[in-house]
Specification:
By secondary structure, the protein is mostly helical. It has ten helices and two strands. It folds into two domains: 146 residues, no CATH class; 38 residues. It is elongated.
Length: 188
């Protein structure tokens, strides 16, 4: 990972997202923001060739993709101000990473709420291999996991699974104790 911009600057960039990037994404024939075109423009501006196949995930006729596409548009606005090491890093961020993030909240919340802005900023920087200015890898990772809604959900799922396992062990111990007690009673 290499040193990146100050986190405050990245968060300010997100907060200043123009309303055009928050408009309805193009889904089928509805909406105004052509996210695939934004991706192509971003890739070209970064000096990379545009692969038409890489744009397919940003074209959709499914309404359930609206939030993912909206958050991708916001992230494209952010990426226009950040150095991208590779086109693959940009496309992975805009595709998989933003898809996971979009499942945790509405795109507009990542612009309007400070904690969500920080989550998007830190997620984008990490995906691009950049550290917020003044932070080392450990600090950046700790802070990202502290503000990450997807990390919180993962921890909640892990905690519930651990509780279920503990309950199953307790129930098995109770059954075994009951069986041993019944065996002892039968022998006497």
């Amino acid at each position: 990972m290499i040193a990146g911009p100050p986190l405050e600057r990245v968060m300010r960039r997100i907060a200043e997202t123009p309303s055009e990037f928050l408009a309805e994404p193009r889904i089928g024939s509805a909406g105004t923001v052509h996210v695939a075109a934004l991706v192509a423009d971003l890739v070209r501006a970064a000096g990379f060739p545009v692969d038409r196949a890489a744009l397919i995930p940003f074209e959709s006729d499914r309404v359930d993709q609206r939030n993912r596409l909206s958050l991708a548009a916001v992230t494209i606005w952010l990426l226009a101000d950040l150095p991208a090491p590779t086109v693959e890093a940009m496309l992975t961020l805009l595709g998989e990473t933003i898809g996971d993030l979009a499942a945790t909240g509405q795109a507009r919340a990542f612009v309007e709420h400070a904690e969500r802005r920080e989550e998007l900023a830190r997620t984008a920087l990490a995906a691009l291999g950049l550290l917020p200015e003044g932070e080392d890898m450990r600090q950046a990772a700790d802070r990202l996991s502290a503000v990450s809604a997807s990390e919180r959900q993962r921890l909640i799922r892990a905690s519930r699974a651990a509780e279920d396992r503990a309950r199953q062990v307790r129930e098995a111990l109770v059954r075994k104790a009951a069986e041993e007690s019944a065996d002892k009673y039968t022998r006497e």
